[in-house]
Amino acid sequence: MITRRLALPVIACAALSVGAGEPPEHYKNDPKNLNPDPNYVPGPYVMPDQFAARTEYEAKKAELNKLDELGNPKRLVTVGGEVSFFATKNESARVQGYFRNFTGAVKFGPKSIESMDLLLDINSLDTAVPGRNYRIINLFFDATAPELGTAHAKFDKFDLKGKSLKDLEKGKVKAFSASGTLMLNGKSVPISADLKLEKKGNTFVVETEKPLVLKISDFDYGARVVDLMKECNHKALGNAVEVVVKLAFR
Fold it and tell me: Which of 7, 8, 11, 58 is most solvent-facing, going by the fewest CB within 10 Å?
């Protein structure tokens, strides 16, 4: 998964002390919040009630996937793919995760792409550790609140690097750039991405040429950064999260 690039979950206590100026590379936790036992592992975390938020996601998904009144054949929706991310804890340890539920749509014009959307169900976050999933979902994202349970990237400006969509019909992979906004945590932040597009049969595959990088500090998570670090017993959490996206449209 950008000029103002894509970042997702990992944070820390210094979030509250950061003022104007450059955002931190890593948020630092206050040592008094850390368990001194080097073998300490955070215990299980009660799964939050996600029903209302996931119902809201399904409603937004249905709206995004709905064809226009003319059944526009140039508007395609996702039929598969993967959305993953890497976050950094304790300044050097990388944690990989996925968003298992997502949907997207792309609309082609006569000569270019007109729009591209990606909607994520934040409650579908999967880091392979259930307790960690629930802590991030509930304490950091507050994603059980229906209005905070989704992230929506909407691109509406495209640079095809001097190429045309007809190149796809010849089976060529084509690099292009896209810019738009990301709505996350009630904030709308400008984003841009370097992507590539390839046609395989009647399927279009769009993927990131390099990871998108989002800054947590752009999305006003405030005290939730501190809460997550305390519960996870982390010394520090990185401000930047790398996102990789590969989507198939048909």
Answer: 58
Core vs surface per residue 67-76: b (16+ CB within 10 A) or e: eeeeeeeebb
Residue 3 half-sphere exposure, CB side, CA atoms within 13 Å?
10
Predicted confidence at residue 2, as pLDDT, reads 38
Type of residue at 231: E
pLDDT reading at 20 higher than 80: no
Q: Is 36 helix (H, G, I), strand (E, B) or coil?
A: coil
Q: Cβ–Cβ contacts within 10 Å for residue 114, how many? A: 15
Residue closest to 72 by CA, chosen among 111, 105, 120:
105
Rounded Cα gap, residues 183 and 188, in angstroms: 4
Span 12-21, mean pLDDT? 40
Q: How far apart are CA 8 and CA 219, in angstroms?
A: 10
For residues 188 and 92, give the distance between their C-alpha atoms in angstroms, rounded to a whole number.
29
| Overall fold of domain 13-65+76-249 | Lipocalin (2.40.128)
117's CB contacts (< 8 A; 6+ apart) are: 64, 104, 105, 106, 152, 153, 154, 155
Of 246, 244, 142, 162, residue with least CA distance to 204: 246
Domain ranges across the chain: 13-65+76-249
Neighbours of 63 (CB within 10 A): 9
Q: What is the pLDDT of residues 55-88, one digit of tens each?
A: 999 999 999 988 655 566 678 999 999 999 999 9
CA 185/CA 200 separation, integer angstroms: 35
d(CA 78, CA 198): 14
What is the rounded distance in angstroms from the CA atom of residue 139 to the CA atom of residue 234?
14
